[in-house]
Amino acid sequence: MRSIDYFDRGHDRDPTRSCIIDTATGLELTFAEVRELTFRIAAALQKNGFENQDLLGLYGPNDGMLLVVILAMWRANGKWIPVNTRNEIDANAAYLNYVRCKWMVYHSSKAEEVARLRSLCPGLTHFICLDRPCDTGGTATDPSLDQLLDGVSAADFTEVEIDAFGNLFDLVGIFPTGGTTGPSKGANVTNLGWGTMIETAADAMGGRTDQPVALVSAPITHAAGPIALSTLSLGATQVILPGFDAERVLRSIEQYRITHMYLPPTALYQLLASPEIGEHDYSSLRIFILVGSPCSPEKLRLAVETFGPCMCQSYGQVECPMIVAWFPPEDVAKFAYEAPEKLAACGKVTRSVKVALLDDDGNEVPRGEAGEICARGALVTHSYFEKPEATAEIRQFGWHHTGDVGKFDEDGYLYIVDRKKDMVVTGGFNVFTAEVEAAITELPQVREAAVFGIPHEKWGEQVHAVVVAEGISDTEIIAHAKARLGGVKAPKTVAFLDSIPRTAAGKMDKKKLRTPYWGENARMVN
């Protein structure tokens, strides 16, 4: 099936059901109204030159109509180019030029940035402003979406040719990989891989309520878009916030009787630290999914106590999206009280993918030992856009290599112990930084921790921690980690920061944290 077919599946459950509630603009649309709009917008795009498998970027803050445009672009069989508003302009321009994006739909609040992108991206030739006509330096004013739709009906849409397999190998997008170790590569995501993700995620999250309502506070133009499509296939109303704000999220859960929501662990930590935590009714929650990075086991246990038996996790990456492993809320709630050590897991491998833990020679490691997480199956993306060497490198031994190091326990739960390149080698011993971070964040005074290696004359590297905390000393943190993990793995030094720097994708920017210790060396290991 195609991406748009999954939205249509949600529509067919109840066309009269509320589909989008935009809390900032007041926009409210039913599934029937959204479906009609996707046909009209797709027809308007075609009328203005949009061709089959054209690339379209979206740029702006959360807005209900941006979600509609994504669906309309897929209706026209286009390819989505996520453009992260948190990125530097030059980085976004480099990616847009790399994939040769032609179309952009943007919000007027980003007009100045779009004008700069326009000057840096000669191939970006079609601009539409979501909310009003806008001047971004072209030969004419960019039309608003309403102007584009003027005089266009759903009947004007021309359906692209669809084969009996639902165009499985057409692309739904070219998604940036994040670029934490260099410029982003573009992952070619097909209908086959995207549909596998949606069906696996919807199967995991569905069946818990007849009235699903999903809260969207993460960026629609980035990570929240895929999860929104998964819940739309279940017929879920999408309540859209302009962005993440801890207090507003807590109030919205009660106000809109939210059943499904997604956040990265860092946002969960902000919720738990909010002065309003515990002041609202969270009983409607059925699925509170954590995605993007490992969650502190202690913070996850506190979340179960706070939000109830709804907390769950999934593991994936752009190249095998979202749900390689799944830790359902029933298991998380059980282990929070019976076996809290298992909360360090990210779940069990889903039925849509095969996973093996491999050593550097491509051999599977014994159960209980750490190896690189490698995957096979329809969930794995097709390739990197115009990068055959990078594709071949990440597909050695007939597996997709995630770059993450993990281990299985005796019950089949998968634990992410580190990024392969984040491992600290100190005195000949391998130290997985995620394990140290988990131990440090057990302390209630610690909000976040980032662990990495810094130079040491004798050991090559020593374990160093950067923490966000109140009311605790470095010696107390070191002593706790030493008691939990032993002297080798415990940090030898601790630094305190008000906040940990993050990449545009919202992940801890360890490269930035390392730089004061290593300088600008490309090789930050000894």
How many distinct folded domains? 3
**Ends: how far apart?**
49 Å
- Reported by name, the CATH topology of the largest domain is Rossmann fold
Strand order of the largest sheet: 2-1-10-9-11-12-13-14-15
What percentage of residues falls in helices of 4 or more residues?
25-40%
Mean of all residue-level pLDDT scores: 92
Low-confidence stretches are 522-526
Count of separate DSSP helical elements = 16
* Number of DSSP strand runs: 25
Profile the largest sheet. Answer: 9 strands, mixed
**Relative strand content:** 15-25%
The structure class reads alpha/beta
Q: How would you describe this structure to a colleague?
A:
This protein is α/β, with parallel strands linked by helices. Helix content is 32%, strand content 24%. It has 3 domains: 3-151 and 167-193, Rossmann fold; 244-419, 3-Layer(aba) Sandwich (Rossmann fold); 423-518, GMP Synthetase, Chain A, domain 3. The strands form 6 sheets. A 9-stranded mixed beta sheet has the order 2-1-10-9-11-12-13-14-15, sandwiched between helices. Strands 4-3-5-6 form a 4-stranded parallel beta sheet, covered by helices on one side. A 4-stranded antiparallel beta sheet has the order 16-17-19-20. It is globular and about 70 Å long. The model is unreliable at 522-526 (pLDDT under 50).
